[in-house]
Specification:
binds flavin mononucleotide; 24% helix; 364 residues; alpha+beta; 23% strand; five-stranded antiparallel beta sheet
């Protein structure tokens, strides 16, 4: 089990969906860092279930209880542990899933890896409930970065075939990102909310689910963050993004579109602006050579449709050794994308914090 991340901003995640609690221990927060618990609560609320028709009806307050490493509003410098209670579990919904494996979910792979000793209730440690501690740690990372003038926000770039307006990769500004984080259904173009909701509804009525894309931007990141070879910004950020359940592809800048361009199109021409080097385009998403170049960092994460669907599917029964069918009746998100927005932001915040605490960059 690899439940740790980071070299400087070190995380250790724990818990299962239907156990008593989930949480995170963070080591490496500089002593004296102001921790705003209200800001943490706001970020947690953006991910919490039960608040929107596109999400599961499981209601959880997702209040974080900080049990160590915080004194009088500041980090003590010792490990900071945040716990989130699981209060609304209905493990009976999952009884059939002990033996009948959900297609597209982690049930079979997890059963094989842990010899059947893993907790299957609500997906256990594979549940997206474990993204709550990630948001907690991300909120603290975000506060450390904000003190250095770095802002991060994401939006629902697409649900099914309905796309939002993308970020302008050259001119994202901090105030716009802060405003975006205030929106409940996080879109740049609010007119896309109705068609996106209709797309999710249509899938749910058909006993199915839909996927989509989250686009995330960070501004104010200084040039020079990231250490090639293995500490490249893309490597470190994407390793966290791929830890988010349901993320199946990640791209930086124009990513998957770059192979269809010519070098003359994909190169970002450079110029001085007020004595500062800028690029006139940002096809590379603010990262070249694995190192930030001072332009906004722009990435996209693709999330697959929710695997747990009501529609009957073929699967296997590991107890009887027979082929069987399964239709899933528990509480599930018909689309995971709206709740994943703050999770993607958190992954980028944590990775940037870890990279910027690197001794050689010595920026935090
Ligand atoms: C915010 C969020 C919510 C999710 N909610 C559900 C859910 O309600 N039901 C479900 O089956 N999968 C849900 N998932 C996805 C699964 O946890 C994930 O697909 C599964 O663990 C298999 O991992 P993989 O898709 O990365 O291969 C969610 C993912 C995220 C990011």
């Amino acid at each position: 089990m690899r439940g740790q991340f980071g070299e400087h901003f070190k995380l250790s995640i724990f818990g299962e969906s239907h156990g008593p609690a989930i949480g995170m221990v963070i080591d490496g927060i500089p002593a004296g860092t102001v921790i705003d618990e209200e800001a943490i609560a706001r970020d947690m609320a953006r991910r919490a279930p039960g608040n929107d028709p596109t999400a599961t009806t499981r209601k959880e307050a997702d209040r974080v209880k900080i049990v160590s490493g915080l004194f009088e509003g500041r980090a003590t410098g010792t490990p900071l542990c945040g716990m989130i209670e699981n209060t609304n579990t209905r493990s009976g919904d999952y009884a059939q899933l002990r033996t009948r494996m959900r297609p597209g979910h982690a049930d079979y792979a997890g059963f094989i890896k842990y010899g059947g000793y893993n907790d299957p209730r609500g997906g256990g440690h594979f549940s997206a409930r474990l993204t709550a501690p990630l948001v907690f740690a991300g909120s603290i990372a975000r506060q450390i970065l904000a003190a250095k003038g770095i802002e991060i926000a994401a939006h629902i770039a697409a649900i099914g075939d309905v796309a939002d307006t993308p970020f302008d990769p050259v001119n994202v500004d901090a105030a716009a990102l802060r405003a975006l984080r205030e929106r409940r259904f996080t879109l740049i173009d609010p007119a896309k909310e109705a068609p996106m909701r209709a797309c999710v509804d249509e899938a749910r009525m058909a006993m199915d689910s839909v996927g989509g894309m989250v686009e995330c931007a960070a501004v104010g990141v200084p040039a020079g963050v990231g250490s090639p070879f293995f500490g490249s910004v893309e490597s470190v950020v994407s390793s966290l993004l791929f830890s988010i359940p349901a993320v199946k592809a990640v791209e930086f800048g124009d990513g998957m579109a770059l192979p269809r361009m010519r070098g003359s199109q994909s190169n970002d021409a450079m110029a001085f602006e007020d004595g500062r080097v800028r690029t006139l385009t940002n096809h590379n998403g603010g990262v070249t050579g694995g190192i930030t170049n001072g332009m906004p960092v722009i990435l996209r994460a693709a999330l697959k449709p929710t695997p747990s669907i009501a529609r009957e599917q073929r699967t296997v029964n590991l107890e009887t050794g027979e082929d069987t069918t399964l239709s899933i009746t528990g509480r599930h998100d018909p689309c995971v994308v709206p709740r994943a927005v703050v999770v993607v932001e958190s992954a980028l915040a944590i990775a940037l914090c870890d990279l910027m605490m690197d001794d050689r960059a010595a920026r935090l």
